[in-house]
Amino acid sequence: MNKVLQSRNGMTLVELLAASVLIIILLLGFFTFLVQGALFTEKNDDSLKGTYLVRNIMEGIKNKEEIRGEKYIERFNTEGYPTVKSVNLNGSFKSNQDLRLRINPHPKENSDIKIFKIEIINQENHIVAETYGYLGVK
Questions:
Q1: Are 57 and 101 a contacting pair, CB within 8 Å?
Q2: What is the pLDDT along the chain (138 residues), one digit of tens a residue?
Q3: Which sign, positive or negative, has the C-alpha torsion 57, 62, 65, 69?
Q4: What pTM does this model have?
Q5: Which residues have a Cβ under 8 Å from the Cβ of 122 and sit 6 or more positions away?
Q6: Which of 80, 79, 78, 127 is nearest to 101 (CA)?
Q7: What is the rounded CA–CA span in Å between residue 105 and residue 74?
Q8: Residue 39: is it exposed, middle or buried by C-beta count within 10 angstroms (0-12/13-18/19+)?
């Protein structure tokens, strides 16, 4: 019986616990990288969508006389407001209801150029994408 107790063919409970703790620590580190990667991908995806939408808006409002004033424009497609085919009346995009459009005109006196800022905003009111546009005044 003494030989059976002194046999070291198996693992002790302490060795099993140590191995389990090491595996758990390694897996937690690995899953942390996965979560960070998923968050980065989601943020980058919103930015890419916003950039694409901004380009479409820039093409749609070139040479529009409706881009005027000094305050943000957040209403569209009605009389006195810019006509943008890809957005609803409240500025939300038809293709992506989570994002909405906001235009901020920057009038310059005695200038032949009209400057405006286009912003794409998410539901938390964070700017996802922004760009500036320039229109020639006739």
A1: yes
A2: 556 556 666 678 888 899 999 999 999 999 999 999 988 888 788 778 777 777 777 766 665 555 655 576 777 767 767 677 778 877 888 877 888 888 887 766 666 777 778 888 888 888 888 888 776 655
A3: positive
A4: 0.57
A5: 46, 98, 99, 128
A6: 127
A7: 11
A8: exposed
Calculate the CA dihedral of residues 69, 70, 72, 77 and round it to 10 degrees: 0
Tokens of 60: 């749609």
CB-based contact 105:67 (threshold 8 Å): yes
Candidates 65, 58, 71, 66; CA nearest to 120 is: 58
Q: Which single residue is written with the structure tokens 């400057």? A: 115
In what side-by-side order are the strands of the sheet with 127-136?
100-106, 113-121, 127-136
Half-sphere exposure of residue 122: CA atoms within 13 angstroms, side-chain side: 14
